Amino acid sequence: MSVAPVPRLWALVCMVVPLLLFCVRPPAQRPKPVTLQVPVRGWWVACNSPGSKVPSHGVRAHGQMYAVDLVQEASEENTDKSPSPGWSLRGRAPKDYPSYGAPVFAMAPGTVVHVTDHLQDHRARDSWPTVIWMLTLEGFLRVLGGARSILGNRVIVQHDDGTCAAYAHLRQGSAVVRAGNRVDTGQQLGRVGNTGNTSEPHLHVQLMDRPRPEAAAGLPMHWAGVEIDDQRLSHRWATGYAKPSAVPDFPANGQIFEATAPQGAAAIDAT
Fold first, then answer.
1. Higher confidence at residue 84 or residue 60?
2. At residue 255, does pLDDT exceed 60?
3. pLDDT band at 265 (very low <50, low <70, confident <90, very high)
4. pLDDT higher than 70, residue 13
5. Which of 24, 144, 211, 257 is the most exposed place for a label (fewest CB within 10 A)?
6. Kind plus residue range of the DSSP H or E element containing 87
7. How confident is the model at residue 141 (pLDDT cuts 50, 70, 90)?
8. Coil/strand/helix, residue 78
9. Could you tell me if 215 and 175 are in contact, meaning their C-beta atoms sit under 8 angstroms apart?
10. Where is the M23ase beta-sheet core domain (predicted)?
């Protein structure tokens, strides 16, 4: 009787299973967007947004169907400028970006079901060599690594209605909650970082139908407490007109919006 070598079989499983996760599909019909509070405060820019197209990140895997990325820009004056990538072999430090360290807040009341915050923040992928690295070998390795490698440091909250929110790419050591903690709307969870599959510090947030991203389908959101500035647009992140698949009334790519705290929300931890 012959037996397949265990190391060879395990290697095959490690290669095939992550790729099969990209076959995870959302519900057959788009559910009505769930109204939540915005997870940031102040002025932000939406990118890779379901307000422009769905799937917003180009994939259905890991509950990312309606995910959105949020960034801050250095000043109002530079919203039309894109930094030149250059040819440096070493990207900028995360602290050089205005998004880095910004507080992240719970969008709805619920229970924390998962926290990872020990992963180290990496430097930005902001030059041609580092971008090529991120889009090729590094990207492939992160796919094989699953949600941990893609989302980086993260907090996952299961809401009282059964939906779940994932807040990803958080700064190392910034989580102020632990699994099992009860959180209220507007309670701080952590801070924006640069961990996982990211080119620069930003917040990746998504709503899911279950707490495990590997098996979850994404759900659409509607944010309360958001005021879109129709007079300004970040051309660095804008991608033109929204596609028919876009979620209505959600900030589109490049749109600049002000996020305000819900009434009675806890004060920001400034430390």
1. 60
2. yes
3. low
4. no
5. 144
6. none
7. confident
8. helix
9. no
10. 149-209
Is the confidence at residue 241, as pLDDT, over 80? yes
Read off the amino acid at residue 143. Answer: V
Buried b (16+ CB within 10 A) or exposed e, 36-47: bbbbbbebbbbb
Q: Which one-letter amino acid corresponds to residue 117?
A: D
189 closest CA partner among 263, 113, 264: 113
Q: DSSP letter for 94, please.
A: G
Question: DSSP label at 134?
Answer: I
Confidence of residue 15 (pLDDT cuts 50, 70, 90): very low
Separation in Å, CA 237 to CA 73, 108, 201, 253 = 11, 27, 14, 6
The two three-digit tokens of residue 81, written as one number: 């400028």
Torsion sign across C-alpha atoms 159, 163, 165, 166: positive
Query: How many Å apart are CA 193 and CA 99, to the nearest integer?
Result: 8
Fold (CATH) for 32-259: Glucose Permease (Domain IIA) (2.70.70)
Length of the chain equals 271
Give the ranges where the chain is alpha helix by DSSP (H).
6-20, 128-133, 139-145, 147-151
Q: Which residues of 75-114 are buried (b: 16+ CB within 10 A; e: fewer)?
A: eeeebeeeeeeeeeeebbebeebebbebbbbbbbbbbbbb
* Tokens at 117, concatenated: 């915050």
Q: Is 43 or 77 the better-scoring residue by pLDDT?
A: 43
- 123, 90 Cβ separation under 8 angstroms: yes
Per-domain residue ranges of the chain: 32-259
- Work out the widest C-alpha separation in the chain, in whole angstroms: 73
For residues 99 and 70, give the distance between their C-alpha atoms in angstroms, rounded to a whole number: 8
